Amino acid sequence: MELLKQKILKEGTTVGPEILKVDSFLNHQIDIRLMQEIGKEFHRRFKDHKITKILTIEASGISIASIAAIYFDVPVVFAKKVQSKNLDAETYKSSVYSFTKEAYYDVKVSKRYLSSDDHILILDDFLANGRAALGLIEILDQAGATLEGVGAVIEKGFQEGGQILRDMNIHLESLAIVNRFEDGKITFIEQNQT
Ligand code: G4P
Ligand code: NA
Ligand code: NA
User: Fold this and answer.
1) What would the pLDDT profile of 55-74 be if each residue is shown by its tens digit?
2) Which of 39, 49, 106, 177 fits 148 for a cystine, CB–CB 3.0-4.6 Å?
3) Whose CA is nearest to atom 11 of ligand 1?
4) Where does xanthine bind (predicted)?
5) What angle do CA 9, 11, 13 make, to 5 degrees?
6) For residue 68, which of 138, 144, 1, 129 has the smallest C-alpha distance?
7) What is the ipTM of this complex?
8) So what's the pLDDT on residue 87?
9) Average pLDDT rounded to a whole number, residues 91-120
10) Of all protein residues, whose CA lies closest to atom 28 belonging to ligand 1?
């Protein structure tokens, strides 16, 4: 997605060879017009699927999923990572390993909001090693729901998440795929536009 790539080049900064900071429009401040174009683009790429819900994970996935959901006209469910007394007792749950935090954390979704009738699109900001996406897939498997696809705003092409999901024959759409950063320089892996 050209507009997104231009924004990454203009405002993205790198931290070492593997971390891309996009706090000015995605992870701290949110550029809502860009989000709208991202939402439209996900809809364009997944519109041939029958989707009943968009599933994401708190916190950064929520704004992306919410704006995309307007175009699909479906609800958003976000998996919770933070323990809360308010969460229903009956939950689907998976344990996710975070490479950046070097620790496991639980993600939970109330059984109320996912069922075997659901056709799910998973959306998130980053696809790195894919552990968050795999955790969400485990949750929708527990619910007996159908996975229709996974969308990432930014895929880090040098980490294994993209390969794992493609090897599982999952319809994966990444709006920008970045290479490992050499001397702080951001470059993209070109994709065949469908
Ligand atoms: P994985 O899920 O793909 O295996 O990745 P990992 O555990 O390494 O990622 C943990 C968190 O870091 C996720 O957000 C993910 O979106 C984010 N992340 C991974 N690589 C980058 C990067 O290069 N830049 C930025 N800005 N974020 C990255 P999270 O900790 O769950 O936090 P939240 O922001 O969604 O609350
Ligand atoms: Na995230
Ligand atoms: Na994040």
Assistant:
1) 999 999 999 999 999 999 99
2) 49
3) 100
4) 20, 27, 156
5) 85
6) 1
7) 0.92
8) 84
9) 95
10) 126
> What mean pLDDT, rounded, does the chain reach?
96
The count of residues in the chain is 194
Identify the CA nearest to 69 among candidates 59, 61, 58, 60: 61
Q: Report CA-CA distances (Å) from 37 to 43, 70, 125.
A: 10, 12, 14
Domains of the chain: 2-178 (3.40.50.2020)
Tokens for 120, please give them: 């799910």
pLDDT digits (tens, 9 = 90+) for 126-176: 999 999 999 999 999 999 999 999 999 999 999 999 999 999 999 999 999
Tokens of 175: 């709006």
Answer for the pair 72, 43: CB distance below 8 angstroms, yes or no. yes
Measure CA 36 to chain center.
Answer: 15
